[in-house]
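pls design
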């Protein structure tokens, strides 16, 4: 590995750990502002810790440490070590940040969103679900997690890889939602708020993970394949793969064009297709592209050119 490559790798690692610190502080702030003051439990193991704090006044910060330290130790033994290290940094920072807020070393109580003063109850799980969904997604993209349920699910998945990870996490969150009915004075509302929080967190984190990687694949059948290909290359800066095709009803020899574009380029692609009435096309969503999708240097018609 060259010196430049080593320096880039070090910078990338340092940035990842810095981001885990930032994300953990963001989650602690979200708990303090939206969750603790509004009598509902978020998803996962921190949801259990929140219910314990509500009933026994035992801080989520301490409970999170008691739960996550052994889980992180197991992650170091059985899972990827960089994953375990970053998750440990997140868990420790989250607890420290919660303690700082709890003891009002930094007093941010004026930001707390309390529903007992007439404001909408549902906004607390919506806001916290969206924020923590962003944090979950960002953590996973950094080859890490927020600890707790994520580590448990990863350990179960490693032992039984045939099990669906989404359903494992869902089962754990469902248990938290069910338990919250009994913890919060036999009320249905905390259960509903927990479900809303869990749903939004999952949806937002999933969009964070897939949204930037999703592409749209077009397959176009036309007798004007060369003209359409040139337009795609000129206007969208994407290359095209040409595959021989034959219409079995008409018996005509044609060509099928295959092109993968960004989501924001769909309308431009549709305009190109619409300009050729004889063309038939369909599209599909691709969750991820691999290889040299963003690094192709040559177009199918000859001259080297950056995409």
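designed seq:
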């Amino acid at each position: 590995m060259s010196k430049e490559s080593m320096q880039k790798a070090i910078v990338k690692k340092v940035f990842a750990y810095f981001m885990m610190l930032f994300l953990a502080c963001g989650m602690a702030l979200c708990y303090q502002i939206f969750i603790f003051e509004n009598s509902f439990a978020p998803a996962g193991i921190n949801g259990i810790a929140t219910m314990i704090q509500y009933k026994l006044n035992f801080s989520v910060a301490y409970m999170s440490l008691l739960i996550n330290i052994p889980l992180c130790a197991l992650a170091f033994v059985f899972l990827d070590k960089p994953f375990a290290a970053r998750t440990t940094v997140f868990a420790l920072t989250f607890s420290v940040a919660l303690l700082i807020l709890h003891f009002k070393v930094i007093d941010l109580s004026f930001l707390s969103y309390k529903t007992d003063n007439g404001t909408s109850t549902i906004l607390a799980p919506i806001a916290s679900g969206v924020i923590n969904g962003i944090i979950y997604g960002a953590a996973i993209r950094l080859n890490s997690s927020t600890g707790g349920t994520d580590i448990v699910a990863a350990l179960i998945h490693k032992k039984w890889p045939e099990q669906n990870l989404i359903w494992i996490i869902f089962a754990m969150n469902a248990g938290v939602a069910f338990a919250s009915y009994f913890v919060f004075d036999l009320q249905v509302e905390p259960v509903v708020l927990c479900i809303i929080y869990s749903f939004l967190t999952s949806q937002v984190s999933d969009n964070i993970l897939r949204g930037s990687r999703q592409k749209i694949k077009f397959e176009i059948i036309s007798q004007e394949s060369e003209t359409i290909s040139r337009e795609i290359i000129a206007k969208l800066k994407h290359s095209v793969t040409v595959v021989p095709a034959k219409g079995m009803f008409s018996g005509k020899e044609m060509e099928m064009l295959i092109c993968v574009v960004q989501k924001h380029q769909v309308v431009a692609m549709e305009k190109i297709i619409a300009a050729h009435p004889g063309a038939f096309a369909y599209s599909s969503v691709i969750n991820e592209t691999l290889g040299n999708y963003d690094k192709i240097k040559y177009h199918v018609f000859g001259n080297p050119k950056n995409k």
